[in-house]
Design a protein that fits this description.
single chain, alpha/beta, six-stranded mixed beta sheet, three-stranded antiparallel beta sheet, binds inosinic acid
Length: 183
């Protein structure tokens, strides 16, 4: 789906499909360099990171494994609840493994803080974070993110895996959702 199909639902497009693809390829090149001799496991956070994971992993030139976690976050609203629950855990033992957590978006960073401390307790060799999008509050909270696709304004955005009430994940670009859709 592209933005012309849902134009009334967006106030504006922040990033086109091409801009997102170009940025993911650039981040993959950095990750190639940083993990050249490592045993890399990409941990995607479901459901939002599906598109990021698919694009990033295929842009890598090094070997990597992939696993997934699902945690509860927003439910059907647009505000973080602060309540984090593991809905699906990893199938991989990450002891001694170099883990790169792949996120769609970091807003308050609450979800991620919980996830990282949980994963750290399993003694990985290293643990870093990659996110496609980051909002200002996360940047202020100094959540230590190694790879950021785009820093974005504090607006509710959809597309490229990001949803509102389960919809818009399959939008190829990323845009700001018009208030009339959720108010
Ligand atoms: P945090 O715990 O506040 O950092 O929230 C992170 C999670 O909230 C993300 O993984 C998304 O699922 C969701 N989220 C935050 N901001 C947005 C947005 O603008 N659009 C869609 N989902 C969002």
């Amino acid at each position: 789906m592209d933005d012309t199909q849902i134009s009334g639902d967006l106030t504006h497009v922040l990033f086109t499909k091409e801009e997102v693809a170009e940025r993911m390829t650039a981040l993959a090149a950095e990750i190639d360099r940083d993990y050249a001799d490592k045993d890399l496991l990409l941990v995607g956070v479901l459901n939002g990171a599906v598109m990021v994971m698919a694009d990033l992993s295929r842009a890598l030139k090094i070997h990597c494994r992939m696993d997934w976690m699902a945690v509860s976050s927003y439910g059907s609203g647009t505000q973080s609840s602060g309540v984090v629950r593991i809905l699906k855990d990893l199938s991989t033992d990450i002891t001694g493994v170099d883990v790169l957590v792949v996120e769609d978006i970091i807003d308050t960073g609450l979800t991620l803080s919980y996830l990282i401390s949980n994963l750290r307790s399993r003694s990985p060799a290293s643990i870093k974070i990659m996110t496609a999008f980051r909002k200002p509050e996360a940047a202020r909270n100094a959540v230590d993110v190694a790879y950021v696709g785009f820093d974005i304004p504090n607006e509710f955005v959809v597309g490229y895996g990001l949803d509102y009430d389960g919809h818009y994940r399959n939008l190829t670009s990323v845009g700001t959702l018009a208030k009339h859709v959720y108010s």
